[in-house]
Amino acid sequence: MSKQVDVAIIGAGTAGLNAFRQVKQVTSNVVLINDGPYGTTCARVGCMPSKVLIEVAKTFSRREHFDDFGIKGSENLTLDRKQVMQYMREQRDWFVARVMDGVNQIGDKNIKGRARFVEPQVLEVNGERIQADKIIIATGSRPIVPDEWKKFGDKVITTDDFFELDDLPDSIAVIGLGAIGCELGQALARLGVKVVGVEMLSNVAGLSDPKVNKVAIEELGKSFDVWLETAAQLSETAEGKIKVETDDGRSITVDKVLASLGRRPNIDNMGLEVFNLGLSNGFKNWVNPNTMQIGNLPLFVAGDVGSLKPILHEVADEGTIAGYNAVQEEVQAFKRRVPLRIAFTDPQVVIVGASFAELVEQNFIIGERSFVVQGRTKVMARNHGLLRVYAHSESGRLLGSEMMIPDGEYIGHFLAMAIENSLTVREVMATPFYHPTVLEGLDNALNAIVVQLEGGNQGPALKTMNY
Q1: Which of 29, 279, 362, 406 is the most exposed place for a label (fewest CB within 10 A)?
Q2: Domains (ranges, CATH) in the chain?
Q3: pTM over 0.90
Q4: Per-residue pLDDT, 463
């Protein structure tokens, strides 16, 4: 053996870096092995560059209200799409550089190369063998592209490719309307690209509440065509464009196709067969989400490669949990955070706590608030969307919510804290809701729940006291 370490971490993304920081608190005998680009998926091709593009698109779209505001000349505004992409990359590079500042401090503990298991606790990297007491796999994931689409070359792109475009296409089909597909589809449409979105399911952005999903489809449909419950087939035209045809008979010819079909774990050719686990579908059925350990093996998984909760704060937690347990004599289980998912569409889609689908068989009641006539959003000329809040039908304890509303991220975080602390609707209503704010809409939805719980004789939304 060339080298023996206490912990080997494979992958230097968000999960791997968090695992490394945790392990380093206990032992310096650790290595971080990475094959491929550094800088994390979030900073390079995910959260940050997409939000820059979304912000530019949202700002440009505000011109639609200028005449109402008395601001004249909006028809003369133009967009330099090459400059948009250049600006986006400049901001992206800034975020990546911040990540690299930390990576560069790791020094010789950082090994550039591809790791492959030759035995359960032995890795081979660049011809060198590394024996590790514990191993953390944090190799991330990559976008899914059907094999039959690869023949179209750069006419079919993924989010890994999109942010390297020098210019935007005149037309694009977004195949897959999860959070990323909805975000980029709407942003591109607002930037003047002809967009059609195709989704095999009847819901968008991960929503399961039928009322909120209906609103989301309507809102997205204001920017681009939304084709649901159908699959897409691609072919190349004589002019070198891509023809998209759906099972229900619709078709469109576009310059490019954005494949937004989800991601698959990076576990190819890693030699994982030494564990005899049968990992053809990845680690999802093997990993303990509270310890990040695989069975009783000296093996831990963290981040997108585990396919559990591919969201940055969850991925960071997984890396920290895996790193902590990799240097303990006894593995510790940790309670995971309240689920919180946000799609940065406009309005924002937020799912917090238990979703509608998870509660549909249970005993719960719903408080609803339309944002079409909500005061703060009316002032902002962004009065659209719907909020639905779920509570236990007897105790009034908050369970979850789905919404598509302006600035929903704030209500989502507020509800996550309330759900984490097992608060009832009444207890949340005892906190102030300042006027005029978007959060007043939440107060209205909660009051609708109280009416169902208590009938028509509600007292003040305040805690009682001895007098």
Answers
A1: 362
A2: 3-143+264-326 (3.50.50.60), 147-261 (3.50.50.60), 340-454 (3.30.390.30)
A3: yes
A4: 77
